[in-house]
Amino acid sequence: MSSRALIMGRIRRALADTPRAADPAAEPVARDYRRTHGDLDSAEAARLLAENLADYRAVVHRCDRAGLPELIGSLLAERGARTVIVPEGLPESWLSATGAEPVPDLAEDTPRVLDARDSVVTGCALAIAETGTLVLDGGPGQGRRRITLVPDHHICVVRVPEQVVCSVPQALARLDPTRPLTWISGPSATSDIELDRVEGVHGPRRLEVILVQDGPPAKEPPPGE
Amino acid sequence: MVTEETSQEPPAFPAAAARAVRNPVLRANLRHATHTIRAKRAAAVAELSDWAELRAAGAAIKDHTLRHLDRYLERLETAVTAAGGQVHWAADAAEAGRIVTDLVRATGEREVVKVKSMATQEIELNEVLAEAGITAYETDLAELIVQLGEDRPSHILVPAIHRNRGEIRDIFRERMGRWGRPAPDGLTDSPAELAEAARLHLREKFLRAKVAISGANFMVAETGTLVVVESEGNGRMCLTLPETLISVVGIEKTVPDWRDLEVFLQLLPRSSTAERMNPYTSMWTGTSDRDGPRTFHLVLLDNGRTDALADPVGRQALRCIRCSACLNVCPVYERAGGHAYGSAYPGPIGAVLTPQLRGTGTPVDASLPYASSLCGACYEVCPVAIDIPRILVHLRERVVEGGPASVRGSRVVIKPARGHAAERAAMRAARWALDHPGVLRAGQRLAARTRRLHPDRLPGPGRAWTDSRALPAVPAESFRDWWQRTRGEAGAPGSGRTPDTGRGTA
Ligand code: SF4
């Protein structure tokens, strides 16, 4: 007998005396919890997002669309970045005021090549205010998962208000499970020494989040549109 | 049936606990860490006004999944396969070890990087791989500390919780060089420097790794998605950089639908690290053309889980999401330490899970249900509402009175342990808990809050005592709480100490 058949047989014997419907869907689970905590308008949601990101040591900046290239340029310069990874689909204008050398996210790059890069700039799929979380799904302007992992400095741009949701339930409803997803809540950290939180282990030790307020329409459409 | 404790198996709980209690550094480390996290967890939970409803939904989703586990596993297998993954089934630890060893061998690699995983610890995968000449590098900071220190894990979330920063620095200084890049010169015991040393040491391993082994926190049957929740980024390194990924996951980690994650991703981080959200969560569905490992294997592990499933009282232990909140509040764990539990699963969850996965035939496994004062704190904090005290009482009955059980999938009748080494070990464990005023005192304080959990008669050792006496009802407010409240700082009667500290008593 295959182990699959063996295990399935064990499960069915174990449940032999347990009453159950033929179709699990006939036994729905009660979900009395809330979809969101608090009734936030979009400005409040953005504020809560900023607060929670900062609470976990992400560095939060705000600007309008016109000011974005300058802000990205100055953050990279401050960091002394010589190279910056640019994922496919990132609006060209974002790096128009940057002195660092832009390098593409290539499938054939080895991890060692990535390790030699200074910074990476990406967009995101959405951000969750209640938990201070950014979610990347590999869509336009986000790149492969590893480019936001190996370099030590990550700048992530969130479009406010349309990319901000309040809660985890709202986020899951908007995400596509077939895409590889990375949820990021602050720079990497550990609680492994005396159960006390220390920031900065394997992922980027500096995480900067730019909340771009959608002002009057700019010349170029935002990514994904 | 094992009749004597042998050196091959871990010592029964009371002997191991007694050893831990004599180690003041260990006790201080445990106490410091668990007390730090308790208050933080309470604050993180208090932020969500619907915690009780989330907890109820978490328990209900898990119960529902377990009740239809065969169907959901079929769905999961179909979805993972359709997304480009390969699914393997392992009935026990030995089979899982063989499957993983063969998969690694087929890649031609001799080393693998590992993400912390309880399932691979349970099946002692690193040892199995070592026998096959394959080196497994643990990449979680605490696991690294344990591996370098040639030590055993003592906590679910923080396996090196029994080590303080000074000890960690010494281990890094002395041992890192043997496994790869040595610790930087002049390394101090500041946690930031220790984390930096781990970053440097492990980076070279991540960058060259071709094969990774992980577990998973959740598997979504509907979509075939696996979820790994972590803090450090070592998980992301293992899940995205290598060419081959092998995930070994217990069958009970299944949830039916994508949407169910909305419950568990709120319950887990707040219960485990007391964070609104852990720093990194990875979700992947099979393989993607352009991102991450080209080859993905999922090894579904039974190893006693179906035996637990066959027990209508005990099966709720399979809801566990391994948050470790129950360890952090347990007065027995705090004093005995994680090693005393003799398995990968320490603390209250270990005391109910291990005897179900492995049976109650050995002294250590028979003594585990007695490693508790039944205070109920574990139940109170458990995010999926596992009634641990009730399972403990149920398992005590099984140890002492025997009865029907499932062993490796077959229905058997367990003989009472009476007269065996197992019973003697169980008695000693019961006595150990009764003899430690610190354990009982913390227990009493919490017992008042969990009155409904308390049995009328004590099963097992202690039954003879309750046979001739009514077990005293637990008062709404324990005597010590009353004393504390009315006398404030004056301390407990006759003790000269503040009752809450438990200092010098364990
Ligand atoms: S039993 Fe409950 S509290 Fe303990 S680790 Fe499992 S889920 Fe967490």
From TrEMBL, chain A:
<dbReference type="Pfam" id="PF02589">
    <property type="entry name" value="LUD_dom"/>
</dbReference>
<dbReference type="InterPro" id="IPR003741">
    <property type="entry name" value="LUD_dom"/>
</dbReference>
<dbReference type="InterPro" id="IPR024185">
    <property type="entry name" value="FTHF_cligase-like_sf"/>
</dbReference>
<feature type="domain" description="LUD">
    <location>
        <begin position="52"/>
        <end position="212"/>
    </location>
</feature>
<protein>
    <submittedName>
        <fullName>Lactate utilization protein C</fullName>
    </submittedName>
</protein>
<dbReference type="InterPro" id="IPR037171">
    <property type="entry name" value="NagB/RpiA_transferase-like"/>
</dbReference>
